[in-house]
């Protein structure tokens, strides 16, 4: 989906690229890294994100083919304006129920709830869930780092970061980067 960028956004990306060299990144990795750096105005995100081009390709293919997008909270869903999402926080049984409904091929975008990330990591590790991509960027001093690590260790295609930083706006930005790349 092509979109027209406002002149201020164009200038922001020019400045971003003068501060962070993303030219060596593959197309989708570059789109995601730049979108998250732009969203936060924090170039250090470029070194904190763990991106895998094949995982991002899988997620993009899934999103553009119309698979379910599952988010942990309404804030993530509201920021993805080009398509509807299922919201775990508003679903009886939460993330586990949605994972059970869509055990294969969905895209999960989690930016708030580290417990949802931990639950998904367990489901993926057991083979009960095979998503196209999990974007896991919850923030927090308690549990977030460990949940993101468990997700990476599960072998599922994922986009995460190393540290405690994150949030719903970042999970949203990652989905939008894939949709608009």
From TrEMBL:
Keywords in alphabetical order: Cobalamin biosynthesis, Isomerase
Enzyme class per UniProt: isomerase
Domain Cobalamin biosynthesis precorrin-8X methylmutase CobH/CbiC: from-to ranges: 8-83, 99-180
Biochemical pathway: Cofactor biosynthesis; adenosylcobalamin biosynthesis
SUPFAM superfamilies: Precorrin-8X methylmutase CbiC/CobH
EC number: 5.4.99.60, 5.4.99.61
Organism domain of life: Bacteria
GO molecular function: cobalt-precorrin-8 methylmutase activity; precorrin-8X methylmutase activity
InterPro entries (UniProt xref): Cbl_synth_CobH/CbiC (IPR003722), CobH/CbiC_sf (IPR036588)
Entry's family note: Belongs to the CobH/CbiC family.
Protein name per its UniProtKB record: Precorrin-8X/cobalt-precorrin-8 methylmutase
Species of origin: Kutzneria viridogrisea
